[in-house]
Amino acid sequence: MFSGIVAAIGTITRVTPAGDGLRLHIDCGALDVADVGIGDSIAVQGICLTVVGREARGLAVDVSRATLLVTHGLSEGRRVNLEKALRVGDRLDGHLVAGHVDGVGTVVAVEELGASMRVVVDAPAELASLIARKGSIAVDGVSLTVNTVQSSRFEFNLIPHTRKSTTLGDLGSSSRVNLEADLLARYVERVIAVTGETDVSQAANKTPGLPH
After folding, report:
1. Confidence grade of residue 191 (pLDDT, cut at 50, 70, 90)
2. According to DSSP H, which parts of 52-109 are helical?
3. Which of 46, 53, 73, 203 is the most buried (most CB within 10 A)?
4. H or E stretch including 189?
């Protein structure tokens, strides 16, 4: 589990075959990985990956073919957002992020607003019901607040700090981004689908184990 607060920007220095997927060798830059061991999880560009090796300047992680089919941004030479898994007692400054990418969106507009930046993204149509105004969304692993949403198109603002400390500052029109909807939205949609109720409170009443 992660918070969507990027700790450092790393670089994929080498990509090698690994079974039906790939092994990424990552220079972790300023990220202290002394406490990261084999088998631990790390978020790379918003994707939860398992550490399979420690290297002089970073880590090696494996990516399955299934993950490669629903994500982007894992090619050699790419800069990537990095975040270590949360520990009990850590601050939760963003929102709960699983690192399970729901789909890839496309940036359709970027507008400079002084030192900040407005970004408009087209998400896959199947994610439309999971994106809400003032709700949370992870974009390339960065926890952000949705400012407006219309169907599957939404927009957010990047403050100067986020532009500087994540790869989102490099976004331009037609850039592709990994998207993960808020966990709560996923579960609400599932409860409604199972119960057939469009009234959330009534759906909760019909679902064992949910608070009424």
Report:
1. confident
2. 65-69
3. 46
4. helix 183-195
